[in-house]
Each structure stands twice: as C-alpha cells, then as structure tokens.
Amino acid sequence: MTQETVTRAQLSEAVYQEVGLSRNESSDLVETVLNEISDALARGEMVKISSFGSFSVRQKGQRIGRNPKTGEEVPIMPRRVLVFRASHVLKSRINQTLAELDPPHIEVA
Amino acid sequence: MTKSELILRLSEQNPHLYQRDIEKIVTTIFDEISEALARGDRVELRGFGAFSVKKRDARVGRNPRTGASVHVTQKFIPFFKTGKQLRERLNTE
C-alpha cells in the first residue's frame, strides 16, 4: 500500500460531489474556509472544529538555540506558533482503521 | 471561533447560498481530511499546512499514581505541520 497525498483539488471535488455547486464555486469555498481559519488564527483566536480538532496559537519566548551543523549559539526570537490538537473522535477513527492496515510507510514518532 | 461560528461567517459572505449547504461544505472538508488520515494518507494544503499520521510504538508505561507497569499498545496519532505562509503570517500581524 502506498501513501497518497490529498490536496485542495480532492477537497474541492468532494464538495462538488456533495453540494450542488459548480466546480469553480466549490474550490472557491474550500479556499474561503481555509482563509477564514487562517484569519482567525492570525488574530490570535483559537479555532475549534467539533469532532475534528482545535487549532490554537501559542506564544513562545526567546531562547538560545544552536546551529546543529556548526554548534554555534544563535538566539531564537520570541514567536507565535500554531498548535493542532486532534479530537478524540478523530484519534479513535484513525486508530480503528490503521490498527488493521498498519501501513508500512507511516513514520514512527 | 467554533465550527458553527465559521459557518455563520461564511453564510454572511455568501448570501446566495443556503446555510444548510455551507454547513455541508464545512463538514465535507473536515470529513475528507479525516478519511484521508484514516487511510494513512497525507493531506497537504499549501500555505495552510499539512496533516499526516505518525505511529507510536507499543511500550511499557507506568501508572503514575500506583507505579504499576502497564502495556501500552501501538497507536497512530494525527499530526499537523503549519504551512510556511501561515507561519509567517502569525508572526507579522
């Protein structure tokens, strides 16, 4: 079994199949959904999608990092990072199917 | 912002669409992503981010309260990596 990559194209196609809109409008809406989520996150808001998961923005303080190649110390500036927490529904859905398949391409983390 | 607030915002921007359909659109998008992950596939949304699945091997864990060792089975966890564009946006606005 090989791994496939799903992109905007497949999401738009699914929307097109599911709702009676044109292909163009379907892909516009997929884009709008992603934009709305990005806008909210850029405002620092948390985005909660029930039975999928939540995205939140976390503020990281400054710290000293190291260039792994040269060993040189470099300051890492304070920054905002995005954190995704999958819902229990999504986690159990994934585990139900993958427990049986156990696809070899999946990386161990 | 919750899923229903997202649906409301989209409805305001698209007055020609039924709210019912907007709801269906949002649900379809997240269902597709979930289904892809449940197949072990990757979902790549350029500029936004990428969803993938990683495996945690089975291990012997410990009940932190009693100290008793317990067998933890192998499990799969969904993972999200923020896209370059969104990551930059979080740090410029």
UniProtKB/TrEMBL annotation, chain A:
What Gene3D superfamilies does this protein map onto? IHF-like DNA-binding proteins
**InterPro entries, sorted:** Hist_DNA-bd, Histone-like_DNA-bd_CS, IHF-like_DNA-bd_dom_sf, IHF_alpha
- Pfam families reported in the protein's UniProt record: Bac_DNA_binding (PF00216)
Quote a single Gene Ontology cellular component term: cytosol
Query: What Gene Ontology molecular-function terms does this entry list?
Result: DNA binding; structural constituent of chromatin
Give a GO biological-process term. DNA recombination
Q: Which UniProt keywords apply?
A: DNA recombination, DNA-binding, Transcription, Transcription regulation, Translation regulation
- Family membership: Belongs to the bacterial histone-like protein family.
| Role description | This protein is one of the two subunits of integration host factor, a specific DNA-binding protein that functions in genetic recombination as well as in transcriptional and translational control.
Q: What is the annotated quaternary arrangement, including any partners?
A: Heterodimer of an alpha and a beta chain.
Q: Extract the NCBIfam families matched here.
A: himA, PRK00285.1
Give the protein's recorded name. Answer: Integration host factor subunit alpha
Species name: Skermanella stibiiresistens SB22
Automatic annotation (TrEMBL), chain B:
Gene Ontology cellular-component terms for this entry are: chromosome; cytosol
Top-rank taxon: Bacteria
Check the record and name the InterPro entries matching this protein. Hist_DNA-bd (IPR000119), Histone-like_DNA-bd_CS (IPR020816), IHF-like_DNA-bd_dom_sf (IPR010992), IHF_beta (IPR005685)
Query: Keywords on this record?
Result: DNA recombination, DNA-binding, Transcription, Transcription regulation, Translation regulation
Q: Which GO terms describe its molecular function?
A: DNA binding; structural constituent of chromatin
GO BP, sorted A to Z? DNA recombination; regulation of DNA-templated transcription; regulation of translation
Q: How does it assemble?
A: Heterodimer of an alpha and a beta chain.
For this protein, the record's PANTHER family field holds: DNA-BINDING PROTEIN HU, INTEGRATION HOST FACTOR SUBUNIT BETA
Q: What is the role of this chain?
A: This protein is one of the two subunits of integration host factor, a specific DNA-binding protein that functions in genetic recombination as well as in transcriptional and translational control.
**Family per UniProt?**
Belongs to the bacterial histone-like protein family.
For this entry, the protein name equals: Integration host factor subunit beta
Q: Which gene encodes it?
A: ihfB
